[in-house]
Amino acid sequence: MNNNNEIGGTLPTESEKLEKIKKYEEFLNERLKKDLDTVLLQRNNTYNEIGEYMRLKSTLEMIKENQIKSTKILANIGSDCFLHVKIPDTNYVFVDVAQGFQVQFTIDEALDFIEVKENYLRENAEKYTEQAVNIQSNIRIVYEGINELMGLPANPPKKMKRFVH
Q1: N or C: which terminus of the chain carries fewer CB neighbours within 10 A?
Q2: CA 133, CA 37: separation in Å to the nearest integer?
Q3: Which backbone phi and psi does 118 adopt, to 5 degrees?
């Protein structure tokens, strides 16, 4: 059997194909899928943080609208451990701004900060989504390369659609 293709180069042997497939699969599993998992986790964490700020915003708006001067709340003190807390003066609140740092704000200042922070987090979530889509595209390209080497149709597995959105 002649191992030359139409252009004049030699065709890869079966063992060369298997080696390439192995390298593609390693790249797919060790790099791309892990990168995708990391980006999706970052995006989910960002959406969770947005949700926390939205709940805080709702609470502060309710305090402001009803002119509540003191209140009792159920506060998460970490690891989903909650404690009943009495707030004797609602003129000022402490807001976690980043990395565990808290700043004392008036309610209006806190609402302004939350709006800016939510916009920032939404932009980050969108960037993570774009990164996930790019990684997913690369995964599909690698699947197509593997399928081509194996002589199969270039369709990625059906469960690929679950990664993004």
Answers
A1: N
A2: 12
A3: -60, -45
Cα distance between residue 147 and residue 17, in whole Å: 11
State the residue for tokens 């959105």.
165
Strand (E) or helix (H) holding 92: strand 92-98
Q: Among residues 30, 144, 23, which one has the least CA distance to residue 157?
A: 144
Q: In this predicted structure, what is the pLDDT of residue 1? A: 46
Identify the CA nearest to 29 among candidates 139, 131, 147, 130: 139
Alpha carbon 48 to its chain centroid, in Å, reads 10
Residues listed for the chain: 165
* Cα 10 → chain centroid: 44
